[in-house]
């Protein structure tokens, strides 16, 4: 069970697809130390899932840092600089890691 500090369930505070992203991210938290082709594929798939989930949010996405909003928007629009940057699976991992850390630090995602 996951919750936030104000006693609402996590699903009331963090979109369910973002909860799944965070849960799946926990399975690859050691990616940089123990990288493998299989984990590269997991990171790439999780990155695409994150983009699709985040893009589907309505006003909730405004609660997140502008860096997430802009990166997702420009990547999905095919902006060449963003496309080139995220060819590197480590950049994908770092974006997922930043999102996960943001959710943990703001108590949007907290395991009890």
Apparent shape: globular
Largest sheet: none
Radius of gyration: 14 Å
- Rounded to the nearest angstrom, the distance between the terminal CA atoms is 6 Å
Helix/strand order, N-terminal first: HHHHHH
β-strand number: 0
What tags apply to this protein structure?
mainly alpha, 112 residues, 6 helices
Describe this structure in words.
The longest helix is centred in the middle third of the chain and has 20 residues, at 37-56. This protein has one domain (10-105). The chain is mostly helical and 112 residues long. The protein starts with 9 loop residues before the first helix and ends in a 7-residue tail after the last helix. The radius of gyration is 14 Å and the shape is globular. It has six helices and no strands.
Secondary-structure map:
Blueprint: H1 10-13, H2 16-25, H3 37-56, H4 66-76, H5 80-85, H6 89-105
Helix pairs in contact: 2-3, 3-6
Quick structural gist:
The protein is an all-alpha fold. About 60% of the residues lie in helices and about 0% in strands.
